[in-house]
Amino acid sequence: MGIKAGNNLLLPSFAVRERCKDLILSDETIAELMRRIMKDVEKGLCKDTHKEAVVKCFITYVQDLPNGTERGEFLALDLGGTNFRVLLIHLGQNHFDMQSKIYAIPQSIMVGTGEQLFDHIAECLANFMKEHDVYSHKLPLGFTFSFPLQQLGLTKGLLETWTKGFKCSGVVGNDVVQLLKDAIRRRGDIQIQVCAILNDTTGTLMSCAWKNHNCRIGLIVGTGCNVCYVEKTENCELFDGNTNKPDCIVNTEWGAFGSDGALDIVITEYDREIDENSINPGKQLFEKMISGMYMGELVRLALVRLTKDNLLFGGKLSDHLLKRGNFFTKYVSEIESDKRGSFLNCREVLGELGLSHATEQDCANVRYICECVSRRAAHLVSAGIAVLINKMKEPSLTVGVDGSVYRFHPHFHDLMVEKIKQLILPGIKFDLMLSEDGSGRGAALVAAVACREN
């Protein structure tokens, strides 16, 4: 049974806490994970081991951060999920004006051909330019493409693998900038100069660096999870560009960490089930333990397991709860937003799931399960961020962060700050900065910096 704490709050039951122990990471486990992440990052950077590296550490060829002198009119294209955005951005002195529009990508296109996908994007781009009276302008464009990309230059990137439900044929192994240019040329009605292709982590870093020149890491904790950071060019053995510049942003693609067994020390039955039922079994295991695409499902699997074992809801399941994907990640944020001792949101969520028979004790248990899953996610991310902060050895830096989990979960920021503090070397100062529209604004800034260079 649960017990009342001294301040009259209902605690999760002893049995539920015991069953959730494998979702809690010990200090020793985190230290071991940090060693493994560091080893994998070094493997990805090294020419001899890159091929078999799990954490690819792709070179982005972005070597300059914004310095405030960027001026002009730029387009940005942001493709990273089931929607994509087109943006028109005006940069002036300390002035940023942005107009954007979101376009849907139908399921049929997500799993159709690459040509269909890029024709759809080009059509939306042309419509957007008509609507904003820039149809006849030749504008520089920054292209945020938030999928694993091997970059061969600032405007050339080969798709490594699709993620997030995409499976368009004829794109993996090909240059996505060229595919976009081909689609624009097939239309023949708009003129665009693609200045840069980047990933949303790079966009986040650039967007924050425009305001805060101290930003050295770009992190996404949303539908997916990935990070980029500023590395010394001399450590980027695969870099094939201007070696006179000291730094280069590296896109780690750390969501893939663990596909070689490195996460086996923390993987639970729920993680294994998520992986087995995903469209990419055996891949992106780190991401599957953290990101918004999976967090709600992890909680659902735990709830189902504990109900079957008669530890929740009087052993009575609902059809809703039994259906895969029905416990949305936003439910986790809502349940954890309840004031301590109140289960207002929790009851509402359980009602939607056909579990109105839940007792107060059930609500306390459900909240605890949500907390275990989200805290584990925050601690895994923090371990990785601490590795990069310790590697860079900057006395003070900012981590730019974007993504729905970080943005909307009520405690994610605080959990990260607290854990990173414990894990970084003494004397280093850091702060976490919420990115304002990194994937859009950042794309335009990369294009603007590239134009500044020319």
TrEMBL record:
<dbReference type="InterPro" id="IPR022673">
    <property type="entry name" value="Hexokinase_C"/>
</dbReference>
<dbReference type="GO" id="GO:0004340">
    <property type="term" value="F:glucokinase activity"/>
</dbReference>
<keyword id="KW-0808">Transferase</keyword>
<dbReference type="GO" id="GO:0001678">
    <property type="term" value="P:intracellular glucose homeostasis"/>
</dbReference>
<dbReference type="GO" id="GO:0005829">
    <property type="term" value="C:cytosol"/>
</dbReference>
<keyword id="KW-0067">ATP-binding</keyword>
<comment type="pathway">
    <text>Carbohydrate metabolism; hexose metabolism.</text>
</comment>
<dbReference type="GO" id="GO:0005524">
    <property type="term" value="F:ATP binding"/>
</dbReference>
<dbReference type="InterPro" id="IPR043129">
    <property type="entry name" value="ATPase_NBD"/>
</dbReference>
<comment type="pathway">
    <text>Carbohydrate degradation; glycolysis; D-glyceraldehyde 3-phosphate and glycerone phosphate from D-glucose: step 1/4.</text>
</comment>
<feature type="domain" description="Hexokinase N-terminal">
    <location>
        <begin position="16"/>
        <end position="210"/>
    </location>
</feature>
<dbReference type="InterPro" id="IPR019807">
    <property type="entry name" value="Hexokinase_BS"/>
</dbReference>
<keyword id="KW-0324">Glycolysis</keyword>
<keyword id="KW-0547">Nucleotide-binding</keyword>
<comment type="function">
    <text>Catalyzes the phosphorylation of various hexoses to hexose 6-phosphate.</text>
</comment>
<comment type="similarity">
    <text>Belongs to the hexokinase family.</text>
</comment>
<feature type="domain" description="Hexokinase C-terminal">
    <location>
        <begin position="216"/>
        <end position="449"/>
    </location>
</feature>
<dbReference type="GO" id="GO:0008865">
    <property type="term" value="F:fructokinase activity"/>
</dbReference>
<dbReference type="Pfam" id="PF00349">
    <property type="entry name" value="Hexokinase_1"/>
</dbReference>
<dbReference type="InterPro" id="IPR022672">
    <property type="entry name" value="Hexokinase_N"/>
</dbReference>
<protein>
    <recommendedName>
        <fullName>Phosphotransferase</fullName>
        <ecNumber>2.7.1.-</ecNumber>
    </recommendedName>
</protein>
<dbReference type="GO" id="GO:0005739">
    <property type="term" value="C:mitochondrion"/>
</dbReference>
<keyword id="KW-0418">Kinase</keyword>
<dbReference type="Pfam" id="PF03727">
    <property type="entry name" value="Hexokinase_2"/>
</dbReference>
<dbReference type="InterPro" id="IPR001312">
    <property type="entry name" value="Hexokinase"/>
</dbReference>
<dbReference type="GO" id="GO:0005536">
    <property type="term" value="F:D-glucose binding"/>
</dbReference>
<dbReference type="GO" id="GO:0006096">
    <property type="term" value="P:glycolytic process"/>
</dbReference>
<dbReference type="GO" id="GO:0006006">
    <property type="term" value="P:glucose metabolic process"/>
</dbReference>
